[in-house]
Design brief:
The protein contains 15 helices and 4 strands. The chain is mainly alpha-helical.
Length: 334
């Protein structure tokens, strides 16, 4: 084969997961910030900033999960039983968040209860996603092409720290989204929160980044042995520059720039993750090629994806373009 189909599909799944984290991250972040927003009016305005796009953002989660099932069936068969509990918690959180999003507009008496549901659903989904990521990074025990670990292997100090880190990241993403999409009082509140969240994200990113190489000798060699250290050291330098730029943009009150720079932080983190894990689909033993379906299946699915993926990108881009600009108080979803 001229093209490495397994590698291409690994790239597509990685892009789908990154798209989900970025696009659904800011509306999960708004849910996490809900208790810190002052009054019903600010909460309504915050929800209206994501009302036209939030459900479409989850398309990428379906693409990533469905693609994993179809293209990397071994990985799907191992990851699901290994991480069944946090995956189910994530799905339950997303369901509660989605129901609360719709129902809170239909009632006054129970609005507080639905606001709490929106917050708890968003928080549960974010923590679960971070724990899933942390459990995957620390490695899954595999024997005879099947999961060989225990029920609670996913719950470790490192996976919990990853859960905390993702909550901080999503909250910062939500705050910078509100900075970009709102004005007046809510805009000022978002700027205030963003300073604290930026500091929190810097701390948890540093902890996770320092901790990760000690989980596996391969990670340590990838990041600190010569000559690879000269190439991979670019990532933490870029990350530091992004934090400096974010602080300067918040201080200068550049409404659009903080969100863009926060996206850059997520991208830098994702690149760092890829550096640590590649070429493994399931650390420490299952590679991309070992987990992949037969080439005939990969080729067939790639044809369908080549048709559908541009359509998904086109309607996502169009929806964001149509609803660009600031969301005024009292305008939006009803």
């Amino acid at each position: 084969m001229i093209f490495d189909l397994a590698f291409i599909w690994a790239g597509l799944i990685a892009v789908a997961i990154l798209a989900y984290v970025i696009l659904d991250g800011f509306d999960l972040g708004i849910g996490i910030l809900f208790p810190l927003l002052k009054g019903v009016r600010h909460r309504d305005q915050a929800m209206n900033t994501v009302a036209p796009v939030w459900d479409g953002n989850e398309t990428w989660l379906v693409l990533g999960g469905g693609g994993l099932f179809a293209v990397f069936p071994m990985a799907y068969a191992i990851i699901l039983p290994a991480l069944y509990a946090p995956i189910m918690a994530m799905l339950i959180g997303l369901i509660f968040r989605g129901v609360a999003f719709e129902f809170r507009w239909r009632t006054s008496r129970w609005k507080t209860a639905w606001d709490l549901s929106f917050f708890l659903g968003s928080l549960t989904a974010a923590v679960s996603q971070g724990i899933i990521l942390g459990a995957l990074i620390q490695g899954i025990e595999v024997e005879s092409r099947a999961y060989a670990g225990g029920w609670w292997d996913w719950l470790t100090p490192f996976s919990v720290m990853c859960g905390v880190a993702l909550v901080a990241g999503y909250a910062l993403l939500g705050a910078t989204w509100l900075i970009m999409k709102t004005d007046h009082a809510l805009n000022s509140r978002a700027y205030y929160l963003a300073w604290y969240l930026m500091a929190a994200m810097a701390v948890v990113m540093a902890v996770v980044s320092i901790w990760t190489p000690f989980l596996d000798a391969k990670f340590m060699a990838r990041w600190f042995s010569s000559p690879s250290v000269y190439y991979v050291s670019i990532v933490p330098l870029i990350t530091f520059g992004l934090f400096v730029g974010l602080a300067l943009s918040l201080n200068a009150k550049r409404d659009n720039l903080p969100f863009i720079l926060t996206l850059g932080l997520f991208l830098a983190s994702y690149i760092g993750l890829g550096i640590s894990l590649y070429p493994h689909m399931i650390p420490p033993s299952i590679t991309i090629w070992q987990a992949a379906a037969p080439d005939e299946s990969l080729r067939f699915l790639l044809v369908g994806t080549a048709v559908l993926l541009p359509i998904i990108i086109a309607y996502t881009t169009y929806s964001y373009w149509v609803f660009r600009g600031k969301t005024k108080s009292g305008e939006g979803y009803h």
